[in-house]
Amino acid sequence: MDDYPKSGFIEHLIKINKLDECDFDHLVFFSQMMFRSMGKWWNGGGVRPVPHEGLDLCFFVNSQNDKFRLDETTDVPLIYDGIIVQVMDDYLGKTVIVSHHPDGKTQSSLLTIYGHVFPDDNLRVGDKINEGDVFATISGVDNRQTTLLPHLHISLARPDMLPPADQLTWELLNKIDRSVFINPIDVLCLNHTIMEYDKTVDLAKTFCKCSLAHKKFLRGF
Hints:
Oligomer: single chain
Distance between the termini: 46 Å
Order of helices and strands: HEEEEEEEEEEEHEHEHEH
Strand content: 25-35%
CATH architecture: Distorted Sandwich
CATH class: Mainly Beta
Number of helices: 5
Number of domains: 1
CATH superfamily: Glucose Permease (Domain IIA)
Shape: globular
């Protein structure tokens, strides 16, 4: 098992997006959102073409079990200090890939891959960014063919098993040996629960947008 230092990503996510104003307690995942899952949690379920290479972050609850979700206003912080090495298209927006050496080595020993985001306008390949810095927001979903809600996809990968970062595309990542990927839960220190996806539930109505929740909490339910 890889031994990477634990990241303060979740604490940064909560602080930057003021999720504590919603009394954030823990993240909620459908089993189909987890690393190596073969299931879909959108469009009524089904089977993914390849095992899930990462983790989908979207839903959370507070101490009263009120249900919330991240949305297109959610800022995305960096997991570790790193360098932007690739920005590429994906199904819902852009994907940003960052190179890190959290174990102190001079060469990169880890890539973090952030899918379905809108990068900051000034973000460029080669930029150095610190852990916790905001570099993107979650992208909205403007696609009538999917019921997939805005969410953050995170993958971790071993760069020594991949081509140079500027050659990476999702087409390549979907075909490559899955052993290149690392379970993000191993470094993100997630307090979470897992539930099964129910295709009869309207997730958009069941889980309140966190941006709307702020307004509700400020004036009281």
